[in-house]
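Issue 218. Parser rejects a valid record. Input:
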Amino acid sequence: MKITVIGGGSTYTPELVNGFLERVSSLPITELWLMDIDKERLDIVGGFAQRMVKAKGNPFKVVLSMNQREAIAGASYVTTQLRVGMMPARRGDEYLGLRHGLIGQETTGIGGMAKALRTIPVILDIAKDIREVAPNALLANFTNPAGLVTEALNRYAPDIPAVGVCNVGITTKMEIIEGLEKFTGTKIDSQHAALKTLGLNHLTWHYGFTVEGEEMWPYIFPAFVEDLKKEEVPEWDIRTIETLGMIPNYYLQYFYYTDKKFAEQKKWPPSRAEAVMEIEKDLLREYADPALIKPPANLMKRGGAYYSTLATQLINSHFNDLGQIHVVNVRNNGAVKEWPADWVLELPAQVDGDGIHPLPADPLPASCFGLISQVKMYELLTVEAAVHGDRNAMYQALLTNPLGPSADKIQAVMDDMLETNKQWLPQFFV
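Output the parser choked on:
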Protein backbone atom coordinates (compact mmCIF):
# COMPACT_ATOMS: atom_id res chain seq x y z
CA MET A 1 0.00 0.00 0.00
CA LYS A 2 1.25 3.45 -0.96
CA ILE A 3 0.47 6.52 1.15
CA THR A 4 1.39 10.00 -0.08
CA VAL A 5 1.92 13.10 2.03
CA ILE A 6 1.71 16.39 0.12
CA GLY A 7 3.64 18.89 2.20
CA GLY A 8 6.04 16.18 3.37
CA GLY A 9 8.62 18.80 4.39
CA SER A 10 6.35 19.95 7.22
CA THR A 11 7.78 19.80 10.72
CA TYR A 12 4.67 17.75 11.61
CA THR A 13 5.75 14.91 9.32
CA PRO A 14 7.90 12.96 11.83
CA GLU A 15 4.88 12.70 14.13
CA LEU A 16 2.87 11.27 11.25
CA VAL A 17 5.65 8.82 10.37
CA ASN A 18 5.75 7.73 14.00
CA GLY A 19 2.01 7.09 13.87
CA PHE A 20 2.38 4.88 10.80
CA LEU A 21 5.26 2.98 12.42
CA GLU A 22 3.03 2.23 15.40
CA ARG A 23 0.38 0.74 13.10
CA VAL A 24 2.42 -1.41 10.72
CA SER A 25 0.69 -4.52 12.07
CA SER A 26 -2.71 -3.30 10.82
CA LEU A 27 -1.71 -1.02 7.94
CA PRO A 28 0.37 -2.90 5.32
CA ILE A 29 2.25 0.17 4.10
CA THR A 30 4.92 -0.60 1.51
CA GLU A 31 5.76 2.96 0.45
CA LEU A 32 5.37 6.33 2.17
CA TRP A 33 5.96 9.14 -0.32
CA LEU A 34 6.81 12.58 1.03
CA MET A 35 6.30 15.31 -1.55
CA ASP A 36 7.26 18.96 -1.15
CA ILE A 37 8.30 21.90 -3.33
CA ASP A 38 10.99 22.99 -0.84
CA LYS A 39 13.98 20.73 -1.47
CA GLU A 40 15.94 21.82 1.58
CA ARG A 41 13.09 21.09 3.99
CA LEU A 42 12.20 17.88 2.19
CA ASP A 43 15.76 16.60 2.46
CA ILE A 44 16.00 17.46 6.18
CA VAL A 45 12.56 16.20 7.24
CA GLY A 46 12.57 13.31 4.76
CA GLY A 47 16.05 12.24 5.78
CA PHE A 48 14.96 12.15 9.41
CA ALA A 49 11.86 10.17 8.44
CA GLN A 50 14.03 7.63 6.64
CA ARG A 51 16.25 7.23 9.71
CA MET A 52 13.15 6.74 11.91
CA VAL A 53 11.90 3.96 9.64
CA LYS A 54 15.35 2.36 9.36
CA ALA A 55 15.63 2.27 13.17
CA LYS A 56 12.41 0.19 13.22
CA GLY A 57 13.77 -2.36 10.75
CA ASN A 58 12.52 -0.68 7.54
CA PRO A 59 8.90 -1.96 7.63
CA PHE A 60 8.21 0.33 4.66
CA LYS A 61 10.13 2.53 2.22
CA VAL A 62 10.20 6.33 2.53
CA VAL A 63 10.45 8.01 -0.88
CA LEU A 64 11.17 11.73 -1.29
CA SER A 65 9.82 13.59 -4.30
CA MET A 66 9.29 17.09 -5.65
CA ASN A 67 6.99 15.79 -8.39
CA GLN A 68 3.37 15.93 -7.23
CA ARG A 69 1.94 13.71 -9.95
CA GLU A 70 4.62 11.05 -9.49
CA ALA A 71 4.11 11.09 -5.73
CA ILE A 72 0.33 10.64 -6.06
CA ALA A 73 0.35 7.98 -8.79
CA GLY A 74 -1.08 4.69 -7.53
CA ALA A 75 -1.55 5.88 -3.95
CA SER A 76 -4.28 4.40 -1.76
CA TYR A 77 -4.33 7.45 0.51
CA VAL A 78 -3.23 11.03 -0.08
CA THR A 79 -2.89 13.41 2.87
CA THR A 80 -2.42 17.14 2.42
CA GLN A 81 -0.66 19.23 5.07
CA LEU A 82 0.63 22.09 2.97
CA ARG A 83 0.99 25.82 3.53
CA VAL A 84 1.04 27.98 0.40
CA GLY A 85 3.56 30.73 1.04
CA MET A 86 4.80 28.93 4.15
CA MET A 87 5.12 30.70 7.50
CA PRO A 88 5.90 34.18 6.09
CA ALA A 89 2.48 34.09 4.41
CA ARG A 90 0.84 33.11 7.71
CA ARG A 91 2.58 36.02 9.39
CA GLY A 92 1.29 38.21 6.56
CA ASP A 93 -2.28 37.00 7.24
CA GLU A 94 -1.94 37.89 10.91
CA TYR A 95 -0.63 41.40 10.33
CA LEU A 96 -3.06 42.02 7.46
CA GLY A 97 -5.83 41.90 10.03
CA LEU A 98 -3.92 44.02 12.52
CA ARG A 99 -3.32 46.74 9.92
CA HIS A 100 -7.07 47.08 9.41
CA GLY A 101 -8.19 46.80 13.02
CA LEU A 102 -9.45 43.24 12.51
CA ILE A 103 -8.69 39.77 13.84
CA GLY A 104 -5.64 38.30 12.09
CA GLN A 105 -5.64 34.53 12.26
CA GLU A 106 -4.88 31.64 9.93
CA THR A 107 -8.38 30.12 9.84
CA THR A 108 -10.85 32.80 10.92
CA GLY A 109 -11.48 36.34 9.80
CA ILE A 110 -9.68 37.95 6.88
CA GLY A 111 -6.45 36.06 7.56
CA GLY A 112 -8.27 32.78 7.13
CA MET A 113 -9.83 34.10 3.93
CA ALA A 114 -6.44 35.04 2.49
CA LYS A 115 -5.13 31.56 3.30
CA ALA A 116 -8.17 29.97 1.65
CA LEU A 117 -7.72 32.01 -1.53
CA ARG A 118 -4.10 30.82 -1.78
CA THR A 119 -4.84 27.22 -0.86
CA ILE A 120 -8.04 26.17 -2.64
CA PRO A 121 -6.62 26.20 -6.22
CA VAL A 122 -3.63 24.13 -5.06
CA ILE A 123 -5.84 21.54 -3.34
CA LEU A 124 -8.11 21.31 -6.40
CA ASP A 125 -5.01 20.70 -8.55
CA ILE A 126 -4.08 17.83 -6.22
CA ALA A 127 -7.63 16.48 -6.63
CA LYS A 128 -7.16 16.62 -10.41
CA ASP A 129 -4.01 14.49 -10.14
CA ILE A 130 -5.78 12.02 -7.86
CA ARG A 131 -8.60 11.73 -10.40
CA GLU A 132 -6.12 10.96 -13.18
CA VAL A 133 -3.40 8.82 -11.57
CA ALA A 134 -4.86 7.52 -8.27
CA PRO A 135 -8.62 7.22 -8.90
CA ASN A 136 -9.24 4.94 -5.92
CA ALA A 137 -7.43 7.10 -3.36
CA LEU A 138 -9.03 8.73 -0.34
CA LEU A 139 -7.94 12.36 0.15
CA ALA A 140 -7.52 13.29 3.82
CA ASN A 141 -7.02 17.04 4.05
CA PHE A 142 -5.31 18.47 7.14
CA THR A 143 -4.62 21.83 5.50
CA ASN A 144 -6.28 24.86 7.07
CA PRO A 145 -8.77 26.36 6.77
CA ALA A 146 -9.96 22.73 6.69
CA GLY A 147 -13.69 23.48 6.42
CA LEU A 148 -13.27 25.90 3.52
CA VAL A 149 -10.89 23.58 1.68
CA THR A 150 -13.25 20.63 2.11
CA GLU A 151 -16.17 22.80 0.93
CA ALA A 152 -14.19 23.60 -2.23
CA LEU A 153 -13.55 19.88 -2.82
CA ASN A 154 -17.24 19.17 -2.23
CA ARG A 155 -18.25 21.75 -4.86
CA TYR A 156 -15.53 21.35 -7.48
CA ALA A 157 -14.22 17.80 -7.07
CA PRO A 158 -17.28 15.88 -5.84
CA ASP A 159 -16.06 12.70 -7.52
CA ILE A 160 -12.97 12.55 -5.28
CA PRO A 161 -13.56 10.81 -1.92
CA ALA A 162 -12.36 13.51 0.45
CA VAL A 163 -12.54 14.29 4.14
CA GLY A 164 -11.36 17.33 6.08
CA VAL A 165 -9.58 16.60 9.33
CA CYS A 166 -8.85 18.81 12.34
CA ASN A 167 -7.31 17.92 15.69
CA VAL A 168 -9.71 20.05 17.80
CA GLY A 169 -12.28 17.25 18.11
CA ILE A 170 -9.84 14.55 19.18
CA THR A 171 -7.97 16.95 21.50
CA THR A 172 -11.25 17.87 23.22
CA LYS A 173 -12.17 14.19 23.46
CA MET A 174 -8.85 13.26 25.09
CA GLU A 175 -9.06 16.18 27.54
CA ILE A 176 -12.54 15.05 28.61
CA ILE A 177 -11.32 11.48 29.01
CA GLU A 178 -8.45 12.70 31.21
CA GLY A 179 -10.91 14.58 33.43
CA LEU A 180 -13.28 11.59 33.65
CA GLU A 181 -10.43 9.26 34.57
CA LYS A 182 -9.41 11.55 37.43
CA PHE A 183 -13.01 11.81 38.59
CA THR A 184 -13.83 8.09 38.40
CA GLY A 185 -10.39 6.60 39.03
CA THR A 186 -11.07 4.30 36.10
CA LYS A 187 -9.11 3.98 32.85
CA ILE A 188 -11.19 4.78 29.76
CA ASP A 189 -10.49 3.29 26.34
CA SER A 190 -10.69 6.19 23.88
CA GLN A 191 -11.99 3.82 21.20
CA HIS A 192 -15.11 3.30 23.31
CA ALA A 193 -15.72 7.00 23.91
CA ALA A 194 -17.34 9.49 21.54
CA LEU A 195 -17.65 13.28 21.50
CA LYS A 196 -20.92 14.78 20.25
CA THR A 197 -20.09 17.99 18.44
CA LEU A 198 -21.56 19.94 15.54
CA GLY A 199 -20.94 23.01 13.40
CA LEU A 200 -18.26 24.09 10.96
CA ASN A 201 -14.51 23.68 11.28
CA HIS A 202 -13.32 25.93 14.11
CA LEU A 203 -16.96 26.82 14.70
CA THR A 204 -18.35 23.88 16.66
CA TRP A 205 -20.21 23.38 19.89
CA HIS A 206 -19.71 20.24 22.04
CA TYR A 207 -22.93 18.98 23.58
CA GLY A 208 -22.50 15.32 24.60
CA PHE A 209 -20.04 12.59 25.45
CA THR A 210 -20.59 8.85 25.65
CA VAL A 211 -18.48 6.08 27.16
CA GLU A 212 -19.51 2.56 26.18
CA GLY A 213 -22.74 4.14 24.92
CA GLU A 214 -23.56 5.79 28.27
CA GLU A 215 -24.17 9.55 28.14
CA MET A 216 -21.76 11.32 30.50
CA TRP A 217 -22.70 14.93 29.69
CA PRO A 218 -24.80 15.37 32.90
CA TYR A 219 -21.53 14.91 34.81
CA ILE A 220 -19.12 16.60 32.37
CA PHE A 221 -20.94 19.88 31.74
CA PRO A 222 -21.62 20.85 35.41
CA ALA A 223 -17.99 20.01 36.23
CA PHE A 224 -16.85 22.29 33.38
CA VAL A 225 -18.99 25.15 34.73
CA GLU A 226 -17.71 24.64 38.28
CA ASP A 227 -14.11 24.72 37.04
CA LEU A 228 -14.81 28.02 35.25
CA LYS A 229 -16.19 29.48 38.49
CA LYS A 230 -12.95 28.64 40.27
CA GLU A 231 -10.78 30.46 37.72
CA GLU A 232 -9.62 33.97 38.53
CA VAL A 233 -10.05 34.96 34.86
CA PRO A 234 -12.40 32.39 33.29
CA GLU A 235 -11.83 31.44 29.67
CA TRP A 236 -15.59 31.79 29.07
CA ASP A 237 -18.10 33.91 30.98
CA ILE A 238 -20.43 31.72 33.04
CA ARG A 239 -23.72 33.21 31.80
CA THR A 240 -22.88 32.42 28.18
CA ILE A 241 -21.91 28.82 28.91
CA GLU A 242 -24.90 28.14 31.14
CA THR A 243 -27.24 29.69 28.57
CA LEU A 244 -25.79 27.57 25.78
CA GLY A 245 -25.63 24.37 27.82
CA MET A 246 -22.72 23.44 25.58
CA ILE A 247 -18.94 23.87 25.48
CA PRO A 248 -17.83 26.05 22.56
CA ASN A 249 -14.83 25.28 20.41
CA TYR A 250 -11.91 27.51 21.49
CA TYR A 251 -12.00 29.39 18.16
CA LEU A 252 -15.43 30.75 19.02
CA GLN A 253 -13.62 33.17 21.32
CA TYR A 254 -12.78 35.18 18.20
CA PHE A 255 -16.52 35.63 17.58
CA TYR A 256 -17.81 35.88 21.17
CA TYR A 257 -15.00 38.06 22.54
CA THR A 258 -13.72 39.86 19.45
CA ASP A 259 -12.54 43.01 21.26
CA LYS A 260 -10.65 40.99 23.86
CA LYS A 261 -8.92 38.80 21.25
CA PHE A 262 -8.00 41.80 19.12
CA ALA A 263 -6.54 43.56 22.18
CA GLU A 264 -4.27 40.53 22.66
CA GLN A 265 -3.14 40.76 19.05
CA LYS A 266 -2.28 44.41 19.41
CA LYS A 267 0.49 43.30 21.79
CA TRP A 268 2.39 41.60 18.94
CA PRO A 269 5.15 40.82 18.19
CA PRO A 270 5.54 37.99 18.39
CA SER A 271 2.47 36.74 16.59
CA ARG A 272 1.76 33.01 16.61
CA ALA A 273 3.40 32.66 13.18
CA GLU A 274 6.54 34.39 14.44
CA ALA A 275 6.65 32.12 17.50
CA VAL A 276 6.21 29.02 15.33
CA MET A 277 8.96 30.18 12.96
CA GLU A 278 11.41 30.16 15.85
CA ILE A 279 10.18 26.72 16.99
CA GLU A 280 10.57 25.39 13.44
CA LYS A 281 14.16 26.68 13.20
CA ASP A 282 15.03 24.65 16.28
CA LEU A 283 13.13 21.58 15.03
CA LEU A 284 14.79 21.60 11.61
CA ARG A 285 18.17 21.95 13.29
CA GLU A 286 17.36 18.88 15.42
CA TYR A 287 15.95 16.93 12.47
CA ALA A 288 19.20 17.50 10.56
CA ASP A 289 21.21 15.66 13.25
CA PRO A 290 22.19 12.33 11.64
CA ALA A 291 22.04 10.65 15.07
CA LEU A 292 18.38 11.57 15.67
CA ILE A 293 15.98 8.64 15.15
CA LYS A 294 13.00 9.63 17.34
CA PRO A 295 10.79 12.78 17.30
CA PRO A 296 12.34 15.32 19.71
CA ALA A 297 10.52 16.75 22.72
CA ASN A 298 10.46 20.19 21.04
CA LEU A 299 7.88 18.88 18.55
CA MET A 300 5.22 19.27 21.26
CA LYS A 301 5.74 23.05 21.15
CA ARG A 302 4.67 23.08 17.49
CA GLY A 303 1.01 22.43 18.32
CA GLY A 304 -1.28 19.97 16.59
CA ALA A 305 -1.69 17.51 19.49
CA TYR A 306 -2.92 14.05 18.48
CA TYR A 307 -2.35 14.81 14.80
CA SER A 308 -0.68 11.46 14.08
CA THR A 309 -3.24 9.62 16.21
CA LEU A 310 -6.10 11.11 14.24
CA ALA A 311 -4.52 10.58 10.83
CA THR A 312 -3.55 6.98 11.39
CA GLN A 313 -6.78 6.03 13.16
CA LEU A 314 -8.83 7.46 10.30
CA ILE A 315 -6.86 5.64 7.59
CA ASN A 316 -6.79 2.45 9.66
CA SER A 317 -10.57 2.54 10.19
CA HIS A 318 -11.15 3.06 6.47
CA PHE A 319 -8.67 0.45 5.25
CA ASN A 320 -9.72 -2.22 7.75
CA ASP A 321 -13.46 -1.44 7.58
CA LEU A 322 -13.63 -0.86 11.35
CA GLY A 323 -16.59 1.51 11.43
CA GLN A 324 -14.98 3.75 14.06
CA ILE A 325 -16.47 7.16 14.85
CA HIS A 326 -14.34 10.21 14.07
CA VAL A 327 -15.09 13.93 14.10
CA VAL A 328 -14.46 15.11 10.53
CA ASN A 329 -15.46 17.68 7.93
CA VAL A 330 -17.74 16.06 5.39
CA ARG A 331 -20.85 16.77 3.28
CA ASN A 332 -23.98 16.84 5.45
CA ASN A 333 -25.99 14.51 3.20
CA GLY A 334 -29.03 14.71 5.45
CA ALA A 335 -27.29 13.88 8.73
CA VAL A 336 -28.71 17.14 10.09
CA LYS A 337 -31.91 17.00 8.06
CA GLU A 338 -32.99 20.53 8.98
CA TRP A 339 -29.82 22.02 7.41
CA PRO A 340 -28.85 22.08 3.70
CA ALA A 341 -27.68 18.64 2.54
CA ASP A 342 -24.86 20.07 0.41
CA TRP A 343 -23.12 21.98 3.22
CA VAL A 344 -19.83 20.62 4.56
CA LEU A 345 -20.17 20.29 8.34
CA GLU A 346 -17.85 19.19 11.14
CA LEU A 347 -19.51 16.35 13.02
CA PRO A 348 -19.04 12.72 14.08
CA ALA A 349 -18.97 10.26 11.19
CA GLN A 350 -18.58 6.53 10.86
CA VAL A 351 -15.47 5.56 8.93
CA ASP A 352 -15.56 2.16 7.23
CA GLY A 353 -14.46 0.52 4.00
CA ASP A 354 -17.28 2.18 2.08
CA GLY A 355 -16.27 5.70 3.06
CA ILE A 356 -17.11 8.46 5.54
CA HIS A 357 -20.73 8.52 6.74
CA PRO A 358 -21.92 11.48 8.86
CA LEU A 359 -24.08 10.38 11.78
CA PRO A 360 -27.59 11.77 12.31
CA ALA A 361 -27.68 14.77 14.65
CA ASP A 362 -30.25 17.24 15.88
CA PRO A 363 -29.74 20.85 14.77
CA LEU A 364 -28.11 23.32 17.13
CA PRO A 365 -30.11 26.18 18.70
CA ALA A 366 -30.93 29.27 16.67
CA SER A 367 -28.19 31.29 18.42
CA CYS A 368 -25.61 28.87 17.02
CA PHE A 369 -27.22 28.30 13.64
CA GLY A 370 -27.40 32.04 13.00
CA LEU A 371 -23.63 32.31 13.22
CA ILE A 372 -23.08 29.03 11.34
CA SER A 373 -25.26 30.12 8.41
CA GLN A 374 -23.52 33.49 8.15
CA VAL A 375 -20.07 31.90 8.20
CA LYS A 376 -21.19 29.25 5.69
CA MET A 377 -22.34 31.94 3.26
CA TYR A 378 -18.95 33.59 3.66
CA GLU A 379 -17.30 30.20 2.96
CA LEU A 380 -19.32 29.59 -0.20
CA LEU A 381 -18.51 33.06 -1.53
CA THR A 382 -14.83 32.60 -0.72
CA VAL A 383 -14.77 29.29 -2.63
CA GLU A 384 -16.24 31.02 -5.68
CA ALA A 385 -13.72 33.84 -5.39
CA ALA A 386 -10.79 31.42 -5.06
CA VAL A 387 -11.82 29.17 -7.95
CA HIS A 388 -12.76 31.87 -10.45
CA GLY A 389 -10.66 34.84 -9.33
CA ASP A 390 -13.98 36.61 -8.85
CA ARG A 391 -13.45 39.99 -7.18
CA ASN A 392 -17.18 40.57 -6.73
CA ALA A 393 -17.50 37.28 -4.84
CA MET A 394 -14.45 38.27 -2.79
CA TYR A 395 -16.07 41.61 -1.92
CA GLN A 396 -19.31 39.89 -0.90
CA ALA A 397 -17.40 37.33 1.17
CA LEU A 398 -15.77 40.16 3.14
CA LEU A 399 -19.16 41.86 3.50
CA THR A 400 -20.63 38.62 4.90
CA ASN A 401 -17.78 37.59 7.21
CA PRO A 402 -18.76 38.32 10.86
CA LEU A 403 -15.12 39.21 11.54
CA GLY A 404 -14.76 41.26 8.36
CA PRO A 405 -14.48 45.02 7.82
CA SER A 406 -17.31 47.51 7.69
CA ALA A 407 -18.66 48.07 4.18
CA ASP A 408 -16.76 51.33 3.66
CA LYS A 409 -13.46 49.59 4.46
CA ILE A 410 -13.90 46.48 2.30
CA GLN A 411 -12.17 47.79 -0.81
CA ALA A 412 -9.10 48.87 1.15
CA VAL A 413 -8.87 45.44 2.80
CA MET A 414 -9.36 43.72 -0.58
CA ASP A 415 -6.66 45.76 -2.23
CA ASP A 416 -4.23 45.04 0.60
CA MET A 417 -5.06 41.30 0.64
CA LEU A 418 -4.61 40.97 -3.12
CA GLU A 419 -1.40 43.00 -3.26
CA THR A 420 0.13 41.23 -0.24
CA ASN A 421 -0.66 37.81 -1.73
CA LYS A 422 -0.24 38.67 -5.43
CA GLN A 423 2.39 36.00 -6.14
CA TRP A 424 0.01 33.25 -4.95
CA LEU A 425 -3.21 34.62 -6.46
CA PRO A 426 -2.71 34.64 -10.24
CA GLN A 427 -6.44 33.91 -10.78
CA PHE A 428 -7.23 37.50 -9.74
CA PHE A 429 -4.75 39.12 -12.13
CA VAL A 430 -5.53 37.56 -15.52
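Fixed in the parser; the record now loads. Residues 118 and 256 are 27 Å apart (CA to CA).
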